[in-house]
Amino acid sequence: MKKYVYLFSEADKSMKNLLGGKGANLAEMTKLGVPVPEGFTVSTDACNKYYEDGKTFSNEIIEQINNALLEVEKITGKKFGDKKDPLLLSVRSGARVSMPGMMDTVLNLGLNDEAVEGFAALTENPRFAYDCYRRFIQMFSDVVMGIEKSKFERILDEVKEAKDLELDTELTAEDLKEITVMFKNYYKEAKGEEFPQDPKVQLLEAVTAVFRSWDNPRAIVYRRLNEIPSEWGTAVNVQRMAFGNMGDTSGTGVAFTRNPSTGEKMMYGEYLMNAQGEDVVAGIRTPNPISQLENDNPEVYKQFLEITNKLENHYKDMQDMEFTIEQGKLYFLQTRNGKRTAQAALKIAVDLVAEGLLTTEEAILKVEPKQLDSLLHPNFDVEELNKANPIGKGLPASPGAACGKVVFSAEEAKEMKAQGTNVVLVRLETTPEDIEGMVAAEGILTVRGGMTSHAAVVARGMGTCCVSGCGDIKIDEEDGVFSLGGKTFNKGDSISLDGSTGNVYGEAIKTVEPEIGGDFGTFMAWADEVRALKVRTNADNPRDTVQAVKFGAEGIGLCRTEHMFFEEERIFAVREMIVAKSEEQRRVALDKLLPMQKGDFIGIYEALEGRPATIRLLDPPLHEFLPHEDEDIKELATEMGLSFEELKETVESLQEFNPMMGHRGCRLAVSYPEIAEMQTTAIIEAALKVKKNKGYDIIPEIMVPLIGERKELAFVKEIITKTADAIIAREDADLKYKVGTMIEIPRAALTADEVAKEAEFFSFGTNDLTQMTFGFSRDDAGKFLPYYYDTTIYESDPFARLDQTGVGKLVKMAAELGRITRPDIKLGICGEHGGNPSSIEFCHNVGLDYVSCSPYRVPIARLAAAHAQIKNKR
User: Which residues are noted in the entry as substrate-binding (predicted)?
Assistant: First the structure.
């Protein structure tokens, strides 16, 4: 028979996947001889079985729970449900990773109308017994049965008011007895049945509630954001109660073996005498610092320090522990690796290596790559943030904190920034035309769009805070007004954004710059020594390139040339090129653009100091560069000496039903070879100039986008090589260059062995490859993907985390086919997935040479690549 229930004495920390983090650690502490109240864990297998069986318990699970109860009764000498000396239990959830939104704890389970009287006689403390019973009724009703706890709080307050009392501790045994009756009456009113008196029914209901909470909406959202599979399930820990509220020699507290904010090696925590656990957490009374325990009970304090030291040395990490003192006897209810700030994580990792507790590889695995995000961006002042309440919530699209005056257009953002005012750009959604306003803004807030929308991608690239998809906003961009959370905001009003949580605040909150200390450099050097995967950046200008190199980028994996075209002094020449009626006219416009593009590439090559750069030829559909409003078309027509009708007709003729799959990418170079000629000229001339002036060994990598057929690439490659070779010969120079392609159409992946005959490198454009493989556009998917998450058809956003089953299979196949044709072919990835840790691990495992991501994700990618190498050496 399969085992679903384990006593703490039957397991250890290696069984975390089966018993959850809490259960595995309770078992490990028991094994170490740490005083832990006896108990057992109902496993994650039982949770999955519960769901498989249509949310019901099989007889074998119930039987195993009952058998485990018998064992706990034997050890404690108490009987569950006994009228004179009842065994009382706590029930806690415990998945393999800590998950906010899971079921809260239930304490004092096993009490009923008869057992409470026996418990009162046994402890000779009726007040304590009835206090435990009223707490149990309230917790069970709220946590297990879903009855609002505020009503119970109201009953408690009414009794205190009637008796002119201020504190719960002033209530007498009789008062508490009266309250339990009122609580049970309210339970009956809410549920239409009596409060359960059978302890076994209470226990089974509580275990069921934990399993149910694994699939509540909060848990589903948390799992999606943190890439936790639903099949992990949760475990349930059932444990004998240890009472911290049995008088002045009892107490309860929480402690960390190091400071979780700074990482400093010091005992950090607090406790309350004569209290139960939730009193400390709820902040009803002010707790004492842990150091004061030495005065209250020196013997217990000495034992406490010995055990906490033992636990940190055993787990080789900072521990977060819950403890209870029952009439002078110390018990540990939990230990786990403590949550900490990014600064603390780095300090603790570096210190533990210095103390000889960890190797550098073990230390690298102690820091989650995503934690580094908060190190690189401004954050809110903690005290100020604690005073503020969010008025709305969107998606945490780009981390950091931003505070500024509301503006509704790129023009307003530029103007106010020029006057020295910090601004937050609020838009229905952003487009490439907003780029200058986005650069000027401290933060960006959009009503529409997901984690990979235009706003999100551009903001992450610039390291700018962004909250996208805040659908509760009602906005009128023309009149410059929006409303959210019952408040109305006009241009110039202050708001604050938290790009790490998605929270929006209707006030100015002070921000502080992050401090990157010496521990960061030490730690990242360890990561760089370990990793096999190179890390490049996606950068379109010298400013982003410099920033990325500072963060450790080893080159550029994607330079999008079109991003340079939207600047004010260039857009006119770009539009001239697009509306040209002949090749001759087009070349005149391209001649204006050539020195601009060349200047950009010179700046980028200089910033790279000899590091490689992959430059993508023009990719977007041409209509993206044209105005769409009649007023703007009239203005452009006048500037260009055309009639309004003539230009409007051209603009309309360029509109496409499905531009993502339309006239773009290499198709532009096939239709207008002169565009590819101009861009190749700019790239090669810039490389030659920087090589000559600075002495850097530059090998340009020219990338042709959106290839679906080998002959397409051969056609465009011929234009590139003919142009490049002519310039190199003219200059009598020695310059090598490479021509490669972006693999972003499934057909290119399927025929990669053919494509590799022409391509010297592949860069996987996983944004478009994901869209084309799934058959939906990332701009529209936000309308229906939430339903897919709710029904667990998809568990994560395929644009944020690479779909390894489908899209990943194409990447793996293309890599293998490409290497058959050209064994030395360079393989990289340049989609948004290049900065996602689980996607980076996949890239490592399939043997890619590098990943490329936005500048502010470079440190995250470096650490994720080190994690991947430690887990699976290559």
Answer: 560, 616, 744, 765-768
Mutual angle of helices 16-32 and 298-315, in 10-degree steps: 130
Residue 559 has pLDDT above 60, yes or no: yes
Q: How far apart are CA 278 and CA 168, in angstroms?
A: 14
Nearest in space to 234 (alpha carbons), one of 220, 249, 248: 220
pLDDT digits (tens, 9 = 90+) for 39-96: 999 999 999 999 999 999 999 999 999 999 999 999 999 999 999 999 999 999 999 9
Share of the chain above pLDDT 90, in %: 72
d(CA 497, CA 468): 10
Contacts of residue 219, Cβ cutoff 8 Å, sequence gap at least 6 = 99, 101, 102, 213
Exposed e or buried b for every residue in 223-242, given b needs 16+ CB within 10 A?
Answer: bbeebbeeebbbbbbbbbbb
CB 437 within 8 A of CB 425: yes
**Concatenated DSSP letters of 48-67:** HHHHHTTS---HHHHHHHHH
DSSP letter for each residue of 489-552 = EETT-EEEEETTTTEEESS---EE-----HHHHHHHHHHHHH--SEEEEE-SSHHHHHHHHHTT
Domain ranges of the chain: 5-240, 242-340, 377-512, 531-557+611-620+660-871, 622-655
- Walk across the sheet containing 474-476 and list its strands: 474-476, 481-484, 487-490
| Among candidate residues 631, 616, 701, the one with its CA nearest the CA of residue 666 | 616
Say if residue 616 carries a ligand binding annotation. Answer: yes
Residue 102 predicted with pLDDT over 80: no
CA–CA gap between residue 170 and residue 153 (Å, rounded) = 16
Looking at residue 182, what is its pLDDT? 96
Tell me, what amino acid is at 199?
Answer: P
Torsions phi, psi for 711 (to 5 deg):
-65, -30
pLDDT band at residue 588, thresholds of 50, 70 and 90?
very high
Question: Which pTM value belongs to this model?
Answer: 0.82
Of 518, 516, 371, the closest CA to residue 863 belongs to 371
List the catalytic residues.
454, 830
Q: Alpha-carbon distance 659 to 864, whole Å?
A: 35
Domain 377-512: homologous superfamily in CATH: Phosphohistidine domain (3.50.30.10)
What is the pLDDT at residue 357?
96
Tell whether 471 is in a known binding site: no
Backbone angles phi, psi at 428, to 5 degrees: -60, -50
Q: Which CATH number fits domain 5-240: 3.20.20.300, 3.30.1490.20, 2.60.40.1190, 3.40.50.720?
A: 3.30.1490.20
| Both tokens assigned to 271 | 């406790």
- 505 has a pLDDT exceeding 60: yes
Residue 560 among known ligand-binding residues: yes
Q: How confident is the model at residue 284 (pLDDT cuts 50, 70, 90)?
A: low
Task: List, for residues 318-372, the tens digit of each pLDDT value.
Answer: 999 999 999 999 999 999 998 888 888 999 999 999 999 999 999 999 999 988 9
Other beta carbons less than 10 A from residue 174's beta carbon: 11
Burial pattern 138-159, b for ≥16 Cβ within 10 A else e, equals bbbbbbbbebeeebbeebbeeb
CA distances from 326 to 38, 86, 255 (A): 14, 17, 17
Strand partners, 703: 616, 740
Torsion of CA 438, 444, 448, 449, to 10 degrees: 70
Residues contacting 120, CB < 8 A, separation 6+: 126, 128, 129, 130, 173
Q: Is 479 annotated as a binding residue?
A: no
Q: What letter represents residue 495's amino acid?
A: I
Q: Which CATH class is domain 531-557+611-620+660-871?
A: alpha beta
Domains 242-340 and 531-557+611-620+660-871 share a fold: no
Which class would CATH give 242-340? alpha beta
CB–CB of 159/171 below 8 Å?
yes
